[in-house]
Design brief:
The chain has helices spanning about 20-30, 30-40, 60-70, 75-90, 110-115, 130-135, 160-165, 170-185, 220, 240-250, 255-265, 275-280, 285-300; strands at about 5, 45, 100, 120-125, 155-160, 185-190, 195-200, 205-210, 225-230. By secondary structure, the protein is of the alpha/beta class. Strand 6 (about 185-190) and strand 7 form a beta hairpin.
Length: about 325
């Protein structure tokens, strides 16, 4: 559709045209989505919407976060890992990626997770209950299964506070992690005593925020499926962060919708994933490191049983074999 005119705002330099706008915003600022939004506001007439959404660049998302929070290099890496984990559930043939963002209170973990809450490919929860993951409730005919696990297929579970799960009664906590561990291989089977049986095929990724309390728990109970990323405030500017906190307190989270829109457009962009091309992009030296890491993890996963009493104290009960 045609453009009738472009009305530039007061104060625009003489002879400033569309080429200048694209150069200043889309190229120099690396913000094509912002450029299109500005262009749409200045045009008099109807602008034809593009067939594909304008994909925000990663730099645009980081810049929007910087208006909201005081970012450190580690925090920026955490944002990138979160976006990559959400996208990973769309990769064909890949194993699920389960990520913990570990950091002290008010380190930005929850805000990172909330930034992706508006995406269609995520399922947001503040915490988890064992009855909610796989429900044994015998619903009346025609009512849907209320279980969360089948709703997660090809999505990413965003968990705002995993610490609440850690603080539950040990029995309930272990049952939650047991259910998650059983779901990692995509197939879940569970029978209840009320003639209710659940059979699910559900592949999903997870991004969960948790405090450093996670280190006080036995890793064998949590399983080896979670990756942990530590948000370290190595260059944290306390005064700058407090200024931004006061601004948010007075004006509300005015930046939050902007961040959520950018993240939503980034995640829901029509990405064309070719696993063979992606693998070709990984250099051989990095593949060798992954293989070495896999061998190490396989050794560390091996169960070692030792005698607890008697003259053979601490000796092997049997010779352990690696995976």
């Amino acid at each position: 559709k045609s453009i009738h005119a472009i009305t530039w705002p007061t104060g625009t330099p003489d002879k400033y045209d569309l080429n200048n706008l694209i150069t200043d915003i889309a190229i120099r600022q690396q913000a094509p989505a912002k450029c299109y939004d500005i262009f749409s506001r200045y045009v008099n007439g109807v602008v034809e919407q593009p067939t594909n959404k304008i994909r925000p660049l990663l730099g645009e998302i980081i810049n929007a976060f910087e208006e909201w929070l005081d970012l450190t290099p580690t925090y920026i890496e955490g944002i990138k890992l979160t976006l990559a984990t959400i996208l990973s559930c769309r990769l064909p043939g890949s194993d699920p990626v389960w990520l913990m963002l570990v950091g002290p209170p008010s380190s930005g973990k929850s805000k990172t997770i909330e930034s992706a809450r508006a995406c269609k490919s995520v399922y947001y929860q503040s915490t988890l209950r064992k009855q909610a993951l796989i429900s044994g409730f015998k619903a009346k005919k025609g009512l849907a299964d209320p279980s969360i696990i089948p709703k997660l297929h090809n999505k990413c579970l965003l968990l705002k506070d995993l610490t609440e799960v850690l603080n539950k009664h040990p029995g309930e906590r272990d049952e939650i992690f047991s259910t998650l561990r059983g779901s990692f291989d995509e197939e879940t089977d569970l029978d209840y005593g009320n003639f209710v049986g659940r059979r699910y095929i559900s592949k999903f990724s997870i991004v969960a925020a948790v405090t450093r309390e996670i280190y006080s728990y036995d890793t064998s109970a949590l399983g080896e499926r979670f990756l942990r990323f530590n948000i370290i405030r190595e260059s944290f500017d306390e005064d700058k962060q407090q200024e931004k906190a006061m601004h948010t307190g007075l004006h509300g989270d005015s930046i939050k919708p902007k961040v959520q829109k950018l993240v939503k457009d980034f995640i829901e962009y029509d990405w064309k994933f070719d696993p063979y091309k992606l693998r070709a992009m990984v250099p051989q030296w990095f593949r060798d490191k992954i293989k070495s890491l896999a061998r190490l993890v396989a050794s560390l996963r091996t169960t070692v049983k030792r005698y607890q009493f008697g003259y053979m104290l601490n000796e092997f009960i049997y010779n352990p074999l690696g995976e």
